[in-house]
Input
Amino acid sequence: MPLIFSHHSMRKRLKVKRKVNNKLITADLHLIDGVREEYRWKIFPWLVEIGKREFCDSLYILGDIGDRKDHHPGSFVNRLISNFRLLLEVFKNIVVVKGNHDYDKDELTPFFDFISAIPNIQFVGEPTVIDGSLFLPHTRARVRKWNSFNLDKYSYVYLHTTVLGAKIHDSGYAIKEGFSIGDFKSFKNTMFISGDIHIPHNMSSNFMYVGSPYPIRFGDEYQGRVLLIKDEKATSINYNSLRKHIWKIKVKADSDIRQQLDKYKWNVGDYVKVEISLHPSEFHEYQGFRKYVSEFCKKNKLVLCSTEMKPIKSTRGTMRKTTTMRGVRADSILKEFCKQQKLSGEQLEIGKELL
Output
């Protein structure tokens, strides 16, 4: 006897099986298997959390999943595969677009092509249509490879490219190469979402950079995010967990360095980059200051990424190299001073620039 459903039970069943096709978009993860970049790997459990919360079926990563092109150790590959398996517990489909950091000299043999061997993960190395959207990976032959597509056909085009005028620094510095944004504005029915530029921002009403979800370089102040495509609309979801853990510190050697460092509210594991301002008369003390900073970070369990010296130009004016003092050239005096103080060649060159 055939199984018969009432109208009520059929409606209830259809409601339960309603198709949800929300998508989560991220880009420019720049993953590295190193202590200083450990914070970047925390994005994976967070993506799982957001994917569950927003009922996402698909995850798109728009290029530059790695940072060192094809120079990654086996430990990196194993860790990446483990994290992709974690993502697949939530996302039914994962698409990874080739970025400029995902291959070295030969773009036809990208390093991450192997992840396509994992079921439900597709690495896009050539222009590809997936679920009605067009994916355009990074290529050195953009005009030739992209011109064969009628972009008006697609509501969404996902790509990894550079557009003239894109903002690459919080100060507002814009890139001076790439496609003109006018090339994309003409496709009024198409939304372009791109990776490559780390700062999230919109170039026009139909072109946006998703941006990196976290700071990549010291001094980055932008708010990282991912994009949620829900009901064919793109909205931002901020990723906040790392913004307060990266420090770029400037200290002056003519005051108490210890007091300057103690004024910050450090957290165990914070990443620190220290810039020490020195007068020419203090150059010979740089190694001592550098050692103190290293010991301070070790004691407070901070990750010291670098210590740099920034020369302070004299306010009394500069002296040309040809200027003589009692018949002796100024650069000769500097050279003799550096020799007596056992300063490095780099410090000597900095001194010459200040003369």
